[in-house]
Design goal:
GO molecular function: arginine-tRNA ligase activity; ATP binding
Largest sheet: 4 strands, antiparallel
Helix content: 40-55%
CATH superfamily of one domain: Isoleucyl-tRNA Synthetase, Domain 1
Strand content: 5-15%
Subcellular location: Cytoplasm
Protein name: Arginine--tRNA ligase
Keywords: Aminoacyl-tRNA synthetase, ATP-binding, Cytoplasm, Ligase, Nucleotide-binding, Protein biosynthesis
EC number: 6.1.1.19
Number of strands: 13
Radius of gyration: 29 Å
CATH topology of one domain: Isoleucyl-tRNA Synthetase, Domain 1
């Protein structure tokens, strides 16, 4: 079930090839999206320049070769050479009926690929804060969408679970005792555990000495130290899973691929880079200098792969990860959903990996850059004390705000129902606020606006879907009845019906676009426009009080397809569709 553009563009392109095949001398006549919008094709103007002909003459010759019987009811040349195409009502009706009968709602994928997505990436024994919100939510929406398009998605949660701080943390665990309340706090308030360890490290010289010794033991593979380290990782997993469950994201323990995973490979990475002449010693450190990366005064910027003290940094680990993802996981596409400030770092890592032969040209690698979440002062969102805002607290604050809205708007609902709805709406609100802006843009966190039932918000979309569901409750029929049978034959006659049907036909194209361009905000924008288009349809075209049975069933068919598209679209964003609001 292609969209109008997907249907018309190949036909117009073929007509261009027929009309000007010789003159174009084999040039690609495919109609670009930029040359086709709102059923107005403007291919004649750029073609006219290449052919040395008046645009209207170009358009007229193309139309002479164009057969759109059964698709368009009207075709005309206007202005300097635009071609206006009017889709036939019967084509629109049959197309949207086919979408409604399709389990995929018109979504067709490309050839399946193996896509590795690196996202979320919290640190063991540290609180997840607001900075983790976007990497987690955007990454999860991309994972859901790409899976829906038929790709094999491999999630990689690159948690920080290795390094010198763990000497301090392990030693603190020894002192407080495994299973003690001080140790178990990692599951609920990991920052408390970390700060207690840090305070000891800074204040007690003997503790600091033991902590440093623990680092040596950890790196040497001492069994007891590794066991204690494993305890900390296990407690942190419980904490991570609590946050992921609250956010309703799809990450699990099987997706964990922390820094420790690559520890044994780091020496080999350095040896191979040095053997290939890609890395050289500079001031005692092993560095990669690439000519395309320079700083002030043209001085080269190094990617340090082994420090002068023999330790390894993020660059080494990231090179090991990309090598593993290509060679062992078989990735065709690798996505890093990481903060925008890491752009230069990843550019250098990718360039080094390609130079080393670990990242072939056949593998696409993308840094999906994530912008910051800002407060009212347009600075990075923090608490009043200036600390990073805890993600768990942020989620609960949103749920509480949604509950307050529900308590005022729907006091008729029982408390248990309002409790469930508040969580679905509150979590959906912060997810949608995050996803509805371009992932590399910053946005101001405005909780009052986010939980509002009006405007471009998550609750508004959830309310729109619930509103459609209520029509079927009033009709006493199941919304799940598939469109396509005789009882739900769709007929398009009214302008509002036509507008809604055309909007529904674009769903597949939008989802494919999200998968190709990695931009979930496109789907958010589409769903908001669809909700508004449905609202206009509902006001203009009575459904349950339609003038006759045929019209009533047709409009119920449009409503059913609208609900299914809304439900599927929200699911791809990781949002629930409440039964009522």
């Amino acid at each position: 079930m292609p969209s109008p553009h997907d249907t018309l563009a190949p036909l117009v392109s073929a007509a261009i090839a027929t009309a000007f095949g010789d003159e174009l001398r084999g040039a690609d006549p495919v109609l670009r999206p930029s040359q086709f919008a709102d059923l107005q094709a403007n291919f004649a103007l750029p073609l006219a320049k290449r052919l040395g002909m008046p645009p209207r003459e170009v358009a007229t010759r193309v139309l002479a070769a164009l057969d759109l019987t059964g698709v368009c009811s009207g075709i005309e040349v206007s202005g300097p050479g635009f071609v206006n195409l009017t889709l036939d009502d019967s084509w629109i009706a049959s197309s949207v009926q086919a979408v409604g009968a399709d389990p995929m709602l018109g979504v067709t994928g490309d050839a399946p690929r193996v896509v590795v997505i690196d996202y979320s990436a919290p640190n063991v024994a540290k609180e997840m804060h607001v900075g983790h919100l976007r990497t987690t939510v955007v990454g999860d929406a991309l994972a859901r969408t790409l899976e829906h398009l038929g790709h094999r998605v491999i999630r990689q949660n690159h948690v920080g679970d290795w390094g010198t701080p763990f000497g301090m943390l392990v030693e603190h665990l020894v002192e407080v005792g495994e299973g003690s309340s001080e140790a178990l706090v990692v599951e609920t308030d990991p920052n408390a555990f970390y700060l207690a360890a840090r305070t000891k490290f800074d204040a007690e010289g003997s503790f600091a000495d033991r902590a440093r010794a623990r680092v040596v033991a950890l790196q040497a593979g001492d069994p007891e130290t590794l066991r204690l380290w494993g305890e900390l990782v296990g407690l942190s997993k419980s904490y991570f899973n609590r946050i992921y469950a609250a956010l309703e994201v799809t990450l699990t323990d099987t997706d964990l691929a922390g820094e420790s995973t690559y520890n044994d490979a780091l020496a080999g990475i350095c040896e191979e880079l040095e053997a290939k002449g890609i890395a050289t010693i500079s001031d005692g450190a092993l560095c990669v200098f690439l000519p395309e990366f320079t700083g002030r005064e043209g001085k080269p910027v190094p990617l340090i792969v082994r420090k002068s003290d023999g330790g390894y940094g993020y660059g080494t680990t990231d090179l090991a990860t990309i090598k593993h993802r290509v060679e062992d996981l078989g990735a065709d596409r690798v996505l890093y959903v990481v903060g925008a400030p890491q752009s230069l770092h990843f550019q250098m890592v990718f360039a080094t990996a390609r130079l080393a032969g670990w990242l072939p040209d056949t593998v696409e690698v993308v840094h999906v850059q994530i912008g910051n979440v800002l407060g009212d002062d347009r600075k990075i969102l923090r608490t009043r004390e200036g600390k990073a805002l805890r993600l768990g607290a942020l989620i609960e604050e949103s749920v509480d705000a949604a509950r307050a809205v529900l308590d005022e708007a729907r006091p008729d609902l029982d408390p248990a129902t309002r409790h469930t709805l508040a969580r679905e709406i509150g979590v959906g609100a912060i997810k949608y606020a995050d996803l509805s802006v371009a992932h590399d843009s910053e946005y101001v966190f405005d909780l009052a606006r986010m939980v509002s039932l009006t405007g471009n918000t998550g609750p508004y979309l959830q309310y729109a879907a619930a509103r459609v569901r209520s029509i079927f409750r009033s009709a006493g029929v199941e919304i799940e009845v598939p469109v396509g049978g005789a009882q739900r034959r769709i007929v398009v006659t009214e302008p509002a019906e036509r507008a809604l049907a055309l909007a529904l036909l674009e769903f597949g194209s939008v989802v494919r676009g999200v998968g190709a361009e990695l931009e979930p905000h496109r789907l958010c924008g589409y769903l908001f426009d669809l909700a508004q288009t449905f609202s206009a349809f509902y006001e203009a075209c009575p459904v349950l009080k339609a003038p006759d049975a045929e019209t009533r069933e047709s409009r119920l068919g449009l409503c059913a397809t609208t609900f299914r598209v809304m439900e599927q679209g929200l699911a791809l964003l990781g949002m629930a569709t409440p039964a009522q609001m």
